[in-house]
Amino acid sequence: MKKATKVLYISQEIFPYLPESEMANMGRYLPQAVQEKGLEVRIFMPKFGSINERRNQLHEVIRLSGMNIIIDDTDHPLIIKVASIPAARMQVYFIDNEDYFRRKNTVANENNEEYDDNDERAIFFARGVMETVKKLRWSPDVIHCQGWITALVPLYVKKTYNDDPFFKHSKVVYSIFDDEFKKPLDHHFIDKILMDGIQKKHLASIKNPPVDYSSLLKLAADYSDGIIQSSPKVNESVLQYVADKKIKFLPYQPAEDYSDQYIDFYNQLF
Predict the structure, then answer these.
(1) CATH number belonging to domain 6-268
(2) pTM for the structure as a whole
């Protein structure tokens, strides 16, 4: 049986670039543990404006930057930056764009009001990662998505990039956290994600706009090969949806060293 040897981690939060949290700590320590067990990893996250580039020694990767991603008929330049995690032999690639990721906060402003364009930010981030991995000429066995801003990646892998040799055989894992957003996504979100290989019939789990948190995660589940519960308490309707669809599922792992269970779960997908 084939085993996973290359794992692509796409994370919404990673410590120390963002403050410690359940997700940020997993984004930081899971890839290191997996790498130390002999697997090859690549790591991506958004370059939120709250990340101090000088302190964290980020620098632009010119050879990877420069392409435009079209969203709602508008070109958005893709900028790729990279930094090394202190005390670990790992690099993190950052997806950046002047319009989407230069504000002072992550997904909500200083009054905790979620940004109106979070839908486009998720689209740009997901597509930016896919195009950059192609430029790296690196074909992952497993793509592990963490955080709702990564929720479109499974759809893109299975529909838009399904015939691409870099992703044709990739298995997709989605981690469910306690990270619900409150404001539904833009009313035209569905129209914005229709592109090569994606049709409205592929979005059956989204009944009616606007798209809320549970609908977005159900869409992620539809195109994931495996789902991991990564917080003790998560959205119950999403968990029930995963169970009803009989998607391969790993329940919450309370053990401090959960990486062995995660690697075993990756390998079960093959």
Answers:
(1) 3.40.50.2000
(2) 0.96
